[in-house]
Queue: 2 jobs
Job 1
Amino acid sequence: MKRFDVAIIGAGALGLAHAYAAAKRGLKVGVFERSPKAEGASVRNFGMIWTVGQWGTPLADVAQDSNRIWREVLANSGIWHDPCGCLTLTYHEDELQVAREFVEMANDPTIRLIQPEEIAQRSPSVRQEGLLGGVFSEREVHVDPRSTIAELPAYLSTKFGVEFHWSHCVTKVETGSIQIGTQTWAADRIIVCTGSDYETLFPEHFADSSLNRCKLQMLRAMPKGDWRIGTMLCAGLTLLHYKNFASCPTLVSVKQRYEETHPEHTKWGVHLLVSQHGTGELVLGDSHEYGPAISPFNLESVDQLILDYLNTFLPVPEIEITLRWHGVYSTYDKQVYEAEVQPNVHIVTGVGGAGMTMSMGLGERTVSRILA
Ligand SMILES: Cc1cc2nc3c(=O)[nH]c(=O)nc-3n(C[C@H](O)[C@H](O)[C@H](O)COP(=O)(O)OP(=O)(O)OC[C@H]3O[C@@H](n4cnc5c(N)ncnc54)[C@H](O)[C@@H]3O)c2cc1C
């Protein structure tokens, strides 16, 4: 029977990050993925390593560490990425006030309040009319999730000898072994990174937890011509969605205003993040629908809410929608669900909308903890 020092279940961002952390310590690592290639939340997201979103949370240090490790992995592997930073745009006085409050609290030279003139230089495509200012956070890195998650396994195999077993759905886990149907593999330590699939391996364990699922609708669009956004972008509605802004006193007014002026956007949890790949393609989203039962069907009206809001700060001249999809992530009220469910069997999931950002830092933290 083949034995690994560490077996990892799931080849999404979290699985790959844990594989990297273990393999760079010289451990023999095997990754088991049920699909022929990863197809979960990790390939469906914006690819925003959005460290600023974790500011002020209990995991802010892990987010910083994650940013550093992502940069190391991306540089060493040669995988495409763009350390372009992110602009949070404000068009209303109350949003500008939240931006001021946040920048003051953050007290970090890499997070600055900037004027419309500087915004126009960094991102000439942004709507200037009514623009009051914005937060520029320069640490944010953009990756193309589809190519990054597809290319990382080859890097981990070639450089660190990680073994990937694709189309291997793990059906049972016990201390010291994993099973795929009738095949058994031995492993000293097992790390379960199965994203929003709670039922297959530990249904009784998850039944008691406050894990939840969230569905997000997304689009890709190709603008006509050589049209670039310069940095990743978001605007007022995003202030309502990320914990880093949660303690800004003026956020209450912003929320109240949007509930009155944009009732459908707030009902469907629509805000807008925009990233742009090297090819020029834009990734646009998203919406938030919570609950255990995720509808397989997308609502055209929700996509339209996304596009309507896009136009308030990024008037793309001509745009062709090239793809529509939705993704599902797992959320947990304490930010990350981490549990040792049997001796040397660890689960890491529930990172919500920050799993790409947090993955490398969480991988490092878990592996150093379980080896200690
Ligand atoms: C639309 C969308 C946009 C987002 N945007 C961002 C963003 O820009 N920045 C950010 O930081 N985060 C973002 N997120 C969140 C982030 O994508 C997730 O938190 C993260 O990808 C979760 O990674 P994961 O590895 O836990 O899960 P997944 O990527 O879902 O991977 C789990 C893997 O486990 C495999 N698996 C499951 N069960 C088994 C089994 N029994 N045996 C073998 N394999 C199994 C699955 O096939 C899957 O490949 C977004 C999420 C969505 C849905």
Job 2
Amino acid sequence: MYIAIIGDIHKAWDDFDVAYFNQSSCDALLFMGDLPGRSHRGTDAVAAELARVTKPAYFMPGNHDGVTIGQFMGELRQNEKWIQKYARRQAPLCDSLQTALGDIVYTGYSRHDLEVSDERIHLVAARPHSMGGATLAFAPYLKERYGVASLEDSADRIEALFDECDGPIVVFSHNGPAGLGAERDAIWGCDFTREGGDFGDSDLAEALRRARSKNKQIVAVIAGHMHHRLKGGGERRWFLRDEHGTAYINAARVPRILRLNGERRHHHVALRIENGTAAVTEILAGESGFDLRNPAE
Ligand SMILES: [Fe+2]
């Protein structure tokens, strides 16, 4: 089974991507969200371009999707007044985004089953719209749409999805789990401050811990949000494998369309699953072919 993971898009998606993935041997696409630039304007137009993909595809809303600038700034500054004031715009914007995505499955606190020949996996979509760090971002909307009012609620909700699974699980979320490092270049480490810090989601980490205690088989944990390029220079680690064999993938290479050897290259991460084990490669595809990058390189 080959799952193509597309990290934070931030407007970097074009006709080449549509043709490439439609002709690709991939069995499904996972979009990690963040379609627009700084403002939410243009989100639905990008979504309509993603909707031209003819393969099964799943979309995880990011912290830039379906939210206005006012709301975004409220979250960034933890200004409760702004968070409340602009919250009611989110539901109609998310509904509109979902419509624009067409046949792409709009995920969040949801379970989906994927079967290719004799390989079968459960896809578990964890918390949508995560901004990372210690807060439950966009809490009024999460409460209204999903009945989730706290990080504890969120962990319970994700755990309940794991409980429904009886085989190999691939879990994805806009931001990755806490507990994987507090260095600035850690897979979901904070590069906005000099001292760094773990910017992963504690609810997802807790749900994963509980799933393991129930012997659930977590093949891969996928997210984006914390861009590969670090503030102040350098690149973060985007892949690791833990002692249980779980593969962790941060797919947020931004911009995902870049120039390599004088040619435009389009980034995605190829996740191949065979007998419940994950193999991961970074792919930079262009008109003349593609480059593969092993996570160890
Ligand atoms: Fe993000």
